[in-house]
Design brief:
The complex is a heterodimer of chains A (114) and B (114). Chain A has strands at 4-7, 10-14, 19-25, 32-38, 45-51, 56-59, 62-67, 72-77, 86-92, 103-104, 108-113. Chain A has 114 residues and is an all-beta fold. In chain A, strands 2, 4, 5, 9, 10 and 11 form a six-stranded mixed beta sheet that branches. In chain A, strands 1-3-8-7-6 form a five-stranded antiparallel beta sheet, with no helix packed on it. In chain A, a hairpin with a 2-residue loop joins strand 6 (56-59) and strand 7. Chain A is globular. With 114 residues, chain B is mainly beta. In chain B, the strands form two sheets. In chain B, strands 2, 4, 5, 6, 9, 10 and 11 form a seven-stranded mixed beta sheet that branches. The chains are: A mainly beta (114), B mainly beta (114). The A-B interface holds A 6, 32, 34, 36, 42-46, 49, 51, 89, 93, 96-107 and B 2, 29-31, 33, 41-43, 45, 48, 50, 55-56, 58, 90, 93-96, 99-108.
């Protein structure tokens, strides 16, 4: 089955800095890679996703890049703000429908200091 | 409100007891997934149902079982509870008509076994 490794486990940055979280996956057939943000005590929420036919996707201050050859993908957050503090999870799955089970990384706790 | 409803929000019970967690998916979603999130763990996949049938199984203990009913709501049954079963249990749903990929999570049920 799929295995997703996520690094770092914790990341502390100053407000305004950039943050990068990296994930690798094992199943070369995986083709959908979402990122979730989970604030303390809340549910994980989808913030951005990327499919294997795309190398990069951007949404305001967040972007995701995918390197299919190396089987890794990354989340980039620019101009970080204190409200970006949360746990971020990457995930991977094969298939292109709700049938497919997402395999999650173990999460990265991002702390943004004012 | 994500549209995925989980009840109860909190549950405190004693070791050896049995509890049932309930999940109603978003309207139109046919697939339901159960995840366990412990304090130092990421999101551990337990089981998936699609349109009433079990579709995939993860690291679900034999003491745990689940089902999805004709109205598509799902229940996760946890029996012979142990202290280590204390965790946040999330339900997610997916596969709205036309949707591809991604889950929507409910707010979770926090189970405390004492």
């Amino acid at each position: 089955g799929e295995n997703v490794e996520q690094h770092p486990s914790t990341l502390s940055v100053q407000e305004g800095d950039s943050a990068v979280i990296k994930c690798t996956y094992s199943d070369s057939a995986s083709n959908y890679f979402p990122w979730y943000k989970q604030e303390l005590g809340k549910r994980p929420q989808l913030i951005i996703d990327i499919r294997s036919n795309v190398g990069e996707k951007k949404d305001q201050r967040i972007a995701v890049t995918l390197n299919k050859t190396a089987k890794h993908f990354s989340l980039h957050i620019t101009e970080t703000q204190p409200e970006d503090s949360a746990v971020y999870f990457c995930a991977a799955t094969r298939g292109d429908s709700g049938y497919s089970t997402l395999t999650f990384g173990k999460g990265t706790m991002l702390l943004v200091s004012p | 409100d994500s549209g995925v409803t989980q009840t109860p929000k909190h549950l405190i019970t004693a070791t050896g007891q049995r509890v049932t967690l309930r999940c109603s998916p978003r309207s139109g979603d046919l697939s339901v997934y159960w995840y366990q999130q412990s304090l130092d763990q990421g999101l551990q996949f337990l089981i998936q149902y699609y349109n009433g049938e079990e579709r995939a199984k993860g690291n679900i203990l034999e003491r745990f079982s689940a089902q999805q009913f004709p109205d598509l709501h799902s229940e996760l049954n946890l029996s012979s509870l142990e202290l280590g079963d204390s965790a946040l249990y999330f339900c997610a749903s997916s596969l709205r008509a036309g949707q591809v990929g991604g889950y929507t999570f409910g707010s979770g049920t926090r189970l405390t076994v004492v």
